Amino acid sequence: MGRLATIYLFTYNSVQAGGWTVALIKLLTNVSSTKSIDGTYDAAGQLICIVPTKVLPVLMQWGGRTHFVAAIVCQIPEVQKLPTVFMTFAAWSLSEVIRYPQYALNAVGHCPGWLTWLRYSAFVVLYPIGAIFGEVLTMYHALPYIKKKHLYGNLFDKLPFSYYSFVMALLACYPFLWMMLYMYMFKQRKSKLGRRGERKHHSGPKRRVD
Question: What is the pTM of this model?
Answer without folding.
Answer: 0.76
